[in-house]
Amino acid sequence: MFLIYNLEFRVCLEFKNLPFGQNLSALSVRSRISYLGFIPMKLSFYGAAGEVTGSHYLLEATGHSILVDCGLFQGDRFAEEKNFEEFPYDPANIQGVLVTHAHIDHIGRLPSLYKKGFRGKIFCTPPTKDLIAIALADSQGILDEEAREIGHEPLYTKEDVALLQEHIHPVDYETLFALGSFQVRLFNAGHILGSAMVEIKTQGKTIVFSGDIGNASSPLFNPPSIFEDVDYVVMESTYGDRLHDKTALRIDALENVVEDTVNRGGVLMIPAFALERTQEILNDLDALITQGRIPKVPVFVDSPLAVKATEIYKKYPDYYRPDIQEQVRQGQTIFQFPGLVFAQSVDESKRINDVPPPKIIMAGSGMSQGGRILHHERRYLPDPKSTLLIVGYQTQGSRGRRILEGAKAVSLFGEQTPVRCRVARIDEYSAHADKNDLVNWARSFKDRVKTVFLTHGEQEGCEKLAYELKDLLGINVQIPARGQSIPLS
User: Are 484 and 458 in contact (CB under 8 A)?
Assistant: First the structure.
């Protein structure tokens, strides 16, 4: 008993203002002791561990529990089943969630978290808040359809999505704020609009969650922030075993694909993620058309989500690279050029079929798992004159991955559709850092960090990046498994 009172006295000295308005007597003995670091922090990996999607991490310290991301698993039927598993903790006990960015594999289970009892605060950047609203509303209908196909009740309702918005609190980059006993700042990740890395300080330790690290050569966003004084890093490894083409060659590659398809009188289909990929390609098509490098053919963006996202992208010019900001200040339009048509309604989408080739169609989803791209693929995959251009990562089990790996036919709307069109790929459009970018990002903290946990990667990519970090930089690396909890002592 003397030990407990002595600890209470020390806690009173070190924590004069306890978080959430608590007084010391309201805390359990375990919580009082944990304030002094006798009970170590614990980090649990509930998604994107040993896999690419489903970002979901639980950090526990000083009597409080917070999440970094709460995303959907994507890919094959097995991945979709995992979205219906019960959370391995009580959502009502989670004080808050820190969101890195608005891709669905980072936010897609937030409404389900709310449905199960979460009532804490969600922090993200202002653009991410806007993008979350449209991304979750868009995915809700798709998830309902998937749930019926695999015999489940819907993950959540439109009402859950709407009520969740009341809990989202936007904060600017590098603004220090408190979440329970955690001191938090968000930093630029350079991945998509508003994407963030999360820095958390507690118990004298600093933990950084990289989120998705942006491609350092992005034509839209500044390079990712770097860190020097950090104890633990949770780091993505999506392209841990691959290099992208040089940026200077990317627009040339796009030019070649467009010209080849147009010359053959075909249709260029681009399954593109509505957030970032669509906007980057529009930016490059604008440049190619303006410079007279490609023929002027109709360009369709057939995605309600991409249309809404592009308007949000126009809303935040301060988040772009300085040269893009200067263009906006001079009155130049971005993501708009002659011949570009945004198809939002179903009727507008159907009218694209009435426009004869050659033409360019961008539509979601980026892995050909759903959305309007499937209708265009059913029509044009069998056409040898047409082209399917892959511009993003295709997770294992996805339809896009099967096509990329040479499938002769794929199932669309319950029927086998032959793949006779040309299949092309441009990796440089990836919004992710490649192997060299990832290694270079880690150089800044190599002399200080205790452990780097590699996530968001297939096993081979994770292992190859782990070898690079250990061999080149001497960093201690772990590859956690989903469900694994690790004390941070």
Answer: no
Is residue 154 pLDDT above 60, yes or no? yes
Percent of the chain topping pLDDT 70: 90
Q: Which residue has the tokens 């708009």?
A: 336
CA neighbor of 204 nearest in space, from 185, 183, 186, 187: 183
Rounded to an integer, the average pLDDT of 253-280 is: 93
Distance (Å, whole) CA 466 – CA 445: 15
Q: Can you say how many angstroms the Cα of residue 33 is from the centroid of all Cα atoms in its chain?
A: 37
Amino acid identity for residue 313 in this structure: Y
| pLDDT at 216 (0 to 100) | 85
pTM to 2 decimals?
Answer: 0.84
Confidence at 142, pLDDT banded by 50, 70, 90:
confident
Q: What angle do CA 9, 13, 16 make, to 5 degrees?
A: 115
- Round the average pLDDT of the chain to a whole number and report it: 89
Strand partners, 42: 60, 487
Separation CA 268–CA 467 (nearest Å): 39
Angle between helices 126-149 and 304-315 (to 10 degrees): 170
